[in-house]
Amino acid sequence: MINYIWFVMVFFGVLIGLFTGNGEVISKSIINSADSTVNMIIGLVGLMCFWCGVMKVAEKSGLTNKLAKVLKPILKLIFKEAAKDEKALGAIVMNITANMMGLGNAATPFGIKAMQEMDRLNKEKGVASNDMSLFLVLNAACIQFIPSTVISIRAASGSDNPGAIILPALLASTVAAITGVFICKILQRYF
């Protein structure tokens, strides 16, 4: 549906621009936006490679494993059924740790594995369990120690201080994650 909406907006925008005699302005705008998009993508690729390398170093140095050890007792308190199963809890810990370190693509396989493990434990097949819902909320509002994607976009856009987003992102994502957990725990009592 959204594709149709965008098509209609672009089509009528170009049509109105042509009828009002602004065809040259439209073509210049298209060319300029395409040029700036390509430049931004090239900048992003380099920065994303850098951050992926930094995250790989953190992973290889054992930093992510140390973070996982710190998280495990906390997650055992939050997840009721999954905490009893070592495979499910291990996949949850690895996914959340990878997300916290900004390894979005590396976190996906762990997230899929965690959902599969929690589905294995789920008594009501086809319906998300409370642990599955909570896990989804934690993935959506995961605490970000290093928001590498946002830093990369800010740097590619010419920001004077792309890293200035680290503290606000850490605070906002922490508040979002804590709020999400509390709301899930409250809703679990009623649904």
Record keyword descriptors for this entry.
191 residues; mainly alpha; 8 helices; 79% helix; globular
Architecture overview:
With 191 residues, this protein is mainly alpha-helical. 79% of the residues lie in helices and 0% in strands. The chain has one domain (46-190). It is built from eight helices and no strands. Helix 4 packs antiparallel against helix 5 and helix 5 packs antiparallel against helix 6 (130-140). The longest helix has 38 residues, at 23-60. It starts with a helix and ends with a helix.
Give the strand content: under 5%
Counting DSSP E segments of at least 2 residues, the number of strands comes to: 0
Order of helices and strands: HHHHHHHH
Quick one: overall form?
globular
Please outline the major beta sheet. Answer: none
Distance between the termini: 31 Å
In a nutshell, what does this entry contain?
The protein is mainly α. The chain has one domain.
